[in-house]
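Researcher: Go.
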Amino acid sequence: MKKIVFYISFLLLVLVGFSSFGQERKKLEKKHKKIKNEIKQINNLLFKAKKEKGNALDDLKDLSQKISARERLIETIRLETKQLSKEIQANEQQLEKNNSELKKLKKDYSDMVVKTNKNRSQQSKTLFLLSSESFYQAYKRLKYMQQYNDYRKKQGENIIVKSTEIKKFNDSLIQKRKSKESLISDEKSQKKEIESDKKNQESLVSKIKKQEKKYKRDLQKKIKEDKRITARIDKLIRAVIAKANKGKKTTKKASSGFVLNAAEKKLLASFEQNKGRLPWPVKGIITRRYGVQPHPTFSGIKINSPGLHIVTKSNTDAKCIFNGKVLALQSQSGGKKSVLIQHGNYISAYNNLENVYVKKGAILKTGDKVGKVFTDKVSGKTKLLFVLFKNTAKLNPAKWIRTN
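Model: Structure:
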C-alpha cells in the first residue's frame, strides 16, 4: 500500500512538473511571437517607407529600435532553449524510469506465463478443484484461479499502457529536440541580422558625427516646434474647459477642470473602468513613449513627449478610443490638424492628421473614424501623436490602452 501511495505521489509530482514547464514555455513562446511581430512591423513601417531624402538621425533611431527588439528576441530564445533543455532532461529521466518499469512488468509477466504453462491443462485445473477437502476450499481455489487470471490479464494491460506512455514520451522528446534545434538556428540567424544592423549603425553614427552641429541645430528646431504645438493644445484645452463650465454653478475656478452633469459623470466612470483595456487609436508601433527622456543619440539633450508617437501604415484612419464628444478641432503647421474628444473629464487628442472626418460637438462611439493620419513625404512615415489628458493634466496613454 505504501508503495502505491509513493508511486501515485511521485507521478503527481512529475505531472505537476511537466505542467509547470509547459506553462512557462507557452509564456515564452507568446513573447517570442510578439517580439517577432514587432520586428516585422518595424521593418514594414520604418524601413520600407518611401523617402524623398534620408535623415541619418531618424534612421539611427529606427535602427536602434530594431536592434533593441532583436536583442530582446535573442534573450527570449535563450530562455526558451534553456526551458526546453529542462523539459528534455525531465522527459529523458521519466523515459528511463518508464523503460525500467516496463522491463520489470515484462519479466513478471514472463515468469507468470512460464508458471501457468506448467499447469496449463484443463485436467490439472479440474484435479486441483476435485482434490479440495471441502466445498469451501474448492470455492476458495476457484476464486484464486479467477483472481490469478484477472491479475495476469491486468499485467498484460499494464504492459500495453506503459508501452503507450513510453511511445508518447519518445514522440514528445523527438518534438522537443526538433524545437530546440529550430530555436538554436533562429538565434544564429538573429545574431547575423544584429551584426549587419550594428555595422549600419556605426556607419550612421560616423555620418552624424561629421555633421553634428547641423543635426543638433535641426533637432533643437524640431524640439521647439513640438513645444509650441503642445503649448497651443494646452491653451486650447484650458479655453474649452472654461467655455464648457460657463454658466454652471461651481466653486471651482473655470480652468481647474470640467464641471460634469449626471450623464458625463456616468461616462467618466465607464472610461476609468476601462483603464488598460482601451483600443489603440491606430495599429502600429510606438517610436517614442510618453514623458521626459534622454535623446537616443546626443547626450545632454532631453525630449519631453506629451504622448505616444505611433507609426502606422499610410492611408490609415485614426479611430476614437471611447465614446465621447468632439470638443475641439485645431489646425497645425503644414496643414496638419488635431482633434480633441471629451470622455467625461478625460480628453483624448489625435494629432498630426491630414484630413478630419468629424465636426465640433459630434457624438462619437468607440472605433469611429476621426481623421486620416498625415504621411511625411521626406521621411515616408505615417505617424500619429496620441495624447491623453485628465482635465488639463497630461497622462501616460500607454497605461490606458491595451497591450498588443
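Model: Helices lie at 2-47, 56-118, 122-130, 135-210, 212-245, 262-273.
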